[in-house]
Design brief:
121 residues, mainly beta, Immunoglobulin-like, five-stranded mixed beta sheet, 8 strands
């Protein structure tokens, strides 16, 4: 599994292929965080930070799975979903984790993405 920091992470999404990004979020003492309850997550990709429309948008209700064990966050786009994405395109993304009890929002990862076009259809 790749090691990610909060910023500067590049992700490649292949049009027409299943995309999975597995993350393991740790607390300040490097212990596994239990995200199985009390949290929601959201991820958006846009062509630029200032763009008003999204290229893709996922939530913990659709496309983001939160859990207690490693990996405790899994991002998934199905082959059908990636086939519907415009390619080629480059942009920026981030993933935010919200603590439901307090409303605290953490940006857990951000970076750039590239959607590469599918040849075999």
């Amino acid at each position: 599994m790749p090691v990610f920091t909060a910023n500067g992470n590049h992700v490649e999404i292949q049009q027409g292929a299943t995309f999975t990004l597995s993350l393991n979020l740790l607390d300040a003492s490097s212990a596994q965080r239990d995200l199985s309850s009390g949290f929601t997550a959201a991820m958006q990709g846009r062509t630029t930070h200032a763009a008003t429309s999204t290229i893709f948008s996922l939530t913990s209700s659709s496309g983001i799975t939160l859990g207690a064990t490693s990996p405790n966050m899994v991002i998934t786009l199905t082959a059908t979903q990636t086939a519907a994405l415009t390619a080629p395109v480059k942009g920026v993304y981030d993933i935010e984790l919200t603590t439901t009890s307090s409303g605290l929002v953490e940006r857990v990862i951000e970076g750039t993405f590239e959607i590469t076009p599918e040849v075999t259809r």
